Amino acid sequence: MIEASQFIGHLQELGYSQYAGVPCSFLKPFINCVIDDPALDYLGSASEGEAVGITMGAHLAGRKTVTMCQNSGLGNMVNPLTSLNYPFRIPTLLITTWRGQPGVKDEPQHEQMGRITKALLDAIEIPSLPFPTETEQIAPTMSAAEAHMAASGRPFALIMAKDSVAPQKLQSVPSPIRVDCESAMKPFGPEGERLNRSGALTAILENLVGNEAIIATTGMTGRELFTIADRENHLYVVGGMGTASGIGLGLAHALPDQPTLVIDGDGAALMKLGALASIGHYQPRNLLHIILDNERHDSTGGQATVSSTTRFAEIAAACNYRRAIATDSARDLPEIVRKLRESDGPSLLHVKIKPGNPDKIGRPTVTPVEVKERFMDFLRGRTGVVSQTSRPRL
To answer: How many domains would you assign to the chain?
Structure first.
């Protein structure tokens, strides 16, 4: 058994500063130690998949990250770990507990996951080691983890068994920031009078300043944005459906002076609806969250989502966003975008649009790694003024 501060102190020496995750009783002393250290950031997540998005955003901002969960939550992480961290080559130190460890008495719901935890990590090609339980194990364990992440650009996992870390009580409980939401939610008009997705994306781009980090959700949103204008400040989230908002939160939190825009879809936003609560709680003033809602899963054939009965702006207001606006007006959209871009966030703009997409719609021709690297260069300021390599509008 080690003290949490021993391992965390070693991580600090290695440059790790951003933690995100969902608690487990085995992780309690570890998380408590991180929360109590003012030099570290811990973002509690609504889901384990969201935590992967948060640490991806923090990585893009230049942070070294730790993502934590109970092993039951590994199932929630599989999609972003395989469809985001793998193609984009995003490393994170993944600490998962080992509930249901064979031979250790535990609750029945942990039995199967305890038996397959190591095999699941192996299946998604994430190597692992036992979490160190002796002081002399810390340095060699992290040396192996660091070597793998540096060589592969992918996560490395540590499996924490019961009683690996000595108990530690939580000393600090941060006071939440509660805001009065400024909202404007008019009834939506006829569907035929709405913009299509490309029209909405064009209106959004034309009314931004140009220095925003833009994170476009998976599916048609990213594809149409790429077709309209491929720029260094665009991140096309080709996988990890639902995690664009988590990525935006991780980035905006790590770089509070960097204007950040998440362009989401209704299906994706519904999949990780808890991320709205996380955004509202952590209050990134530099984050604008736009949901383009056509009530369809366009990428898979136009099947209906449940967003026809979901009022995203009202949810955002209830989740402590500073501003929440709903519109389907092509005329009003430019002014609303300009207003929200100039205002403190977090803000949410719910835009009802027409279903459907162009017959000939391209896909990003730059690889995810290339997109990541130029996006990080943009964030570091190496690219100067954002170039506007535009394609014909749809």
So the answer is: 2
